[in-house]
Design brief:
255 residues; mainly beta; six-stranded antiparallel sheet; globular
């Protein structure tokens, strides 16, 4: 009698709706992408990523799109991910509307041991900073612990197996680091980097792109801001949390 084998299939933290495969023709005007579906149909999809998308918008690359049934949308399709890295094909999520949704799910499930037992309530988009003109992505509070201000940044840029942020000069990102430092020591401050690809084991600031950001990040670490470079695996099935990448103070520190 053949032995029965029980296979355990992990359930993604976030599950995509049914996706449609295609090939990227071009991305333009920041918010638009022309894509040829495997059916042969040519579509224009919404690109929910305003950055330069260095290395993750190469024409001819396999992509996946979702289809909305909302009749009020101008573009029914949304570009969700692209396959990169010819030697080790890797899906990279490019929809910047998703990371905060995924992090909220992860916080609700208490997936980050670095924050375990330190919060009971999760409050998104809370005003803070100078004259309350900024909003923190998440404020985590508990009865017997300091409040935690947690900012989320989406990361798709890489060099080898090192994930890098930012992929463009970001005065907004610089401001976020300064505001996180300002809440210390009466609160905890956490910068969470959502590494939206599973081929990176390390994380470092992209000094070659924004040296000021890199300097501020190292200053923030010295002053007590916690850095969580979180690795995620993105596939057409969904998004899984893989744990932390190793933080390198600079790209030259790569092992």
């Amino acid at each position: 009698m053949a032995q029965q084998i029980n296979m355990v299939i992990s359930i993604p933290l976030y599950q995509y709706p049914p996706l449609i495969p295609g090939t990227l023709i071009k991305r333009y005007k920041r918010f638009l992408a022309d894509i040829k579906l495997t059916t042969g149909e040519m579509i224009t999809a919404h690109c929910a990523n305003t950055g330069p998308m260095i290395g993750v918008c190469t024409p001819g690359s396999p992509v996946q799109v979702s289809l909305s049934n909302n009749p009020k949308r101008k573009l029914a399709y949304t570009w969700e991910m692209i396959q990169v890295n010819d030697t080790q094909p890797t899906w990279t999520g490019i929809n910047t509307a998703l990371p905060n949704k995924v992090i909220k799910l992860a916080l609700e499930k208490r997936l980050f041991p670095e924050l375990a037992g330190q919060y009971d309530r999760i409050s998104p988009e809370v005003p803070y900073g100078k004259e309350k003109k900024s909003r923190i992505d998440f404020l985590l509070t508990g009865e017997n612990s300091l409040p935690i201000y947690l900012e989320v940044k989406n990361v798709t840029l890489s060099q080898g197996n090192v994930a890098l942020f930012p992929d463009t000069v970001t005065t907004r990102g610089q401001k976020h680091l300064q505001e996180l430092m300002a809440v210390l020591p009466v609160a905890k401050a956490v910068m969470l980097y959502f590494i939206n690809r599973d081929d990176c084991l390390y994380f470092a600031p992209a000094d070659q792109i924004d040296r000021t950001y890199g300097q501020l990040l190292r200053e923030a670490v010295e002053k007590g801001v916690e850095i969580l470079p979180c690795r995620f695996r993105t596939t057409p099935r969904g998004i899984e949390y893989l744990g932390l990448a190793e933080f390198l103070g600079e790209i030259d520190g790569k092992r």
